[in-house]
Task: structure prediction
Amino acid sequence: MTSSIPTPAGLQPPENAVALDMMSREQIQAKIQFIQTALDDVLLGKHLQIKLSLACLFASGHLLIEDLPGMGKTLLSHALARVLGLSYNRIQFTSDVLPSDVIGATIFDKKTDTFRFIEGPIFAQLVLADEINRATPKSQSALLEAMEERQVTTDGQSRKLPEPFFVVATQNPSTQAGTFALPESQLDRFLMRIELGYPEPAAERELLLNGDRRQHLQQLEAQLTLPQLRQIQQAVTDIKISDPLVEYVQRLVAFTRQGGEFAFGLSPRGALALLQGAKAWALISNRTHVVPEDVQAVLPSCVEHRLRESADFTGHGGGALAQKLLAKVDVVA
Result:
């Protein structure tokens, strides 16, 4: 089951117009602040989660949102697509979804007497994989190549996905019926994992008094053109990191590889994800370089889903391990 919104008008301007969309550093910060304010108005009381989501997408990563049904996971993904000006498809995962329902399929066209490929819902700039852990492992794996290589392969032919390409996946807690736990290889493709949690009393009161926030989606307008979004992503890459900062990240990673409570350590991909997330957080915080506080701010979201306690076979001990990292590893060697 899929749903989509069309690509916003003017999203892909002609090449000679790209220079006109270039922003100064001050304009980038103003855009980011305006986007945050717009999202705060839709998802009440979730400023931290919104900032983490933007950091993940600006870092060209994929986002996993794990929480109970009805907490606003789908609302957040839809709002991100609208405010960032991205084409959007929603895939509702169920136990009977097939990989071809996600990627697409080749059919025989009797009119032309040829085979042609029908694109699946994965061909969008922001794809919501809704309740991804309700699908079987075979259907979950249909996203692996897409998330890593930004392409899909069918019938021996590789097809590029739209650019940019973001997957925002939601999953229900594994304790709920009808779920299939995501394997480590799938979890590792997500730059960040966040939880929305129950709303604060003030936010919930406003929600109860003023009704469903989904009506505010229609009022959201695209705040970025495609060249502007690319510029922000490049600005994240250009954020400076010092040697002492890299050494701090290395100590964090090394601590997870010492055994003990950690079933296994962070991989190089996990270390890169932590550093890239910190760069995006620094940009959003209006800094040109990464400071230890940036690493600490994104560390739980970047590493919790990559860690597992040796004595915990359910894989839900990553939160405690992340907090131990922050407490045990010194910023200065």
Summary: The two ends are 52 Å apart (CA to CA).
